[in-house]
Amino acid sequence: MPISLFNEKRPILVTCPKALPPLLAAEMAALGLPGRELAAGVLTQGDMADCMRLNLRLRTGHRVLLELARLAAPDPAALAEEMGRIAWEELIPADGHLTVDCSVKNEHVRDARFVNQKAKDAIVDRILARMGKRPDSGPDPVGAALFLHWRDDALTVYLDTTGAPLSRRGYRKMPHKAPLQETLAAGIVLAMKFDADAGHFLSPMCGSGTLAIEAALIALNRAPGLLRSGFAFQHVLGFDPARYAELRREASQAAKKHYAGRIIASDIDPEAVAAARQNARTAGVEEHIEFQVADFRESLVPEPLPDGATGVCVLNPEYGARLGDSPRLEPVYAAIGDFFKQRLAGWRGFLFTGNPELAKRVGLKPRRKTPFFNAKIECRLLEYELYQGMRRPQPETPDETGGKPAAPQGLKGPKGLNELKNSNDHKSPRSSNGPRPQGRPTDRNSQKGPKR
Ligand SMILES: C[S@@+](CC[C@H](N)C(=O)[O-])C[C@H]1O[C@@H](n2cnc3c(N)ncnc32)[C@H](O)[C@@H]1O
Description:
With 452 residues, the protein is of the alpha/beta class.
């Protein structure tokens, strides 16, 4: 069976973490490739050049899979036979490297690695028979890559045009503690509706800086794929380096040099701020982010922009699953509510957490709850519209999952009230441009990055 990849449209499956398909589908539609949302991916149609563009531009996708064949294979012997009938010598260089990965549910298979091995053997044996040489192989995607989706006897064979997943942008050399995956962080920023005109971006618990870095990449319309050292499609026979160079050029030209708002990343831990700064440097956005060592309560809140735009603030505190424990974290969540009310009136505040009980301690009613998964932990991005003064919140829009509405808003609830009393509420709250309170932590790393 010959393979013709370069001049015909085929199904393209872009995979992503659960809950991200709506954001991924929106990204793909904006690139002219609308698709159908699946549980953990989006299906569209396109050719190899489309795959290259998706790899370069997507922020929330993991892998771009180009469909090669749909086969019937009831058991591993049939799979090997079918795989041996495809003209792999037209696609995979005999002196190259091949990685095969799969997702399988078949009654004859207990270990997916067995399927990878069986398929790989059939492919390299065929290439050896025709070319007199066989490619190297192994699990590290350093060359051409294939992905098999096998359910009962339905086998779909994909060319994995990506290789190492797109979440590995290449900038996070310093992970620090409990970092968010880059793809998830980009999804959070997109769900916040932060874009080129959204005002300032504050990340006052920045950790390794992932949210602020993804925000900077989005604000500047920088294609994350330009940061990577390479993709699997570059190792396929027929790869067109001139077309790839053109697509890279197009992506670079679409990027902006400046962003009107300020992007501020701070953390109480100087090591986190150092890691965030280093990662931002690797990502090429250090000069667009201002870094500060500070408790979030004392973090920098800039003046609105001349057009009156304030901005967004996102906090990703520990939520007790991987670090810390709930009793220790309850006052932190309560203080987040205080911070939002006292310092961010007129802004949009966001909390990303996997602990709904702790989230109630914020004591404000979320306007919207967007579901996410951080690895296997179900999380929510909670949005708070922070009105001037203590205005009553608008009626809540339904949970986007269709789930239950938020817990009763805590401003008046006994628990919330008690917690607020114990917090900074009574310590002469400071407006965004008010004087520094006594005892503010030394802002050692505070530094203005961008030249405006
Ligand atoms: C879950 S991590 C954030 C991870 C981050 N989103 C990333 O991708 O790397 C929580 C961060 O909050 C910081 N933190 C904890 N308490 C803080 C406080 N009172 N003020 C500022 N930062 C704080 C911690 O130092 C840690 O870096």
